[in-house]
Amino acid sequence: YGLVLSSWSRSIISGKGKYAFDVLEQLEKQSLVNGNVLPNVHCYNAVINTCAFSHGDAPKQREAFDIAVLTMEKLQNLKQENPISSTYGTFLKACGKLSIPAVLSQSHIEKVFKQCREDGLVNDFVLTQLRYSSSPTTYKQILGGMISSEGINKRLTMKDIPKDWQRNIVDKITDDERGDWWGSSDE
């Protein structure tokens, strides 16, 4: 299922978000009868990613956005899986890449970034996608005092945000012979 979902994101077919979502629903149904077949967070991410790279006219773009929102909501409501940083970043990417009304995308951007922040999963990918998908007003509103009107174009990194926003990031590699972070050195 994972390979099929991944292949849909590379497809050039219009409406591919719907096809990927259908595969995800088949996987969910199969998991009810076969405990060895379980959807994981990466399956949901693949559908959202497929939506982010959808193309077509305005109705197709709106359909892809609606599917990305539905997929995100489904994942957030699961007991056995939770969104990860890449889920939030990919959803923000979908909001920025799809041609949908700003009033619709910006409210979802605010909601999803708030949840990501509360989950302690804000990383550089999420910050980058937030910057590119948000309107300047939404960006300033979400980040509050971290940016000034002169610094709206400044790229924020994990060093610039509160530790609480990144407390559950697990892709940090620590405590090995190379130092606290790979590539960093205290020397």
Helix content: 55-70%
Query: Rg to the nearest angstrom?
Result: 18 Å
**Secondary-structure element order, N to C:** HHHHHHHH
Q: What is the number of helices? A: 8
Q: Beta-strand percentage?
A: under 5%
Strand elements, count = 0
Largest sheet: none
Average residue pLDDT: 86
Q: Unreliable segments (pLDDT under 50, ≥5 consecutive)?
A: 173-187
Q: Alpha-carbon distance between the termini?
A: 47 Å
Identify the quaternary structure here: single chain
State the shape: globular
- Overall structural class, as computed from helix and strand content, comes to mainly alpha
Written account of the structure:
With 187 residues, this protein is mainly alpha-helical. It has eight helices and no strands. The longest helix is centred in the middle third of the chain and has 20 residues, at 58-77.
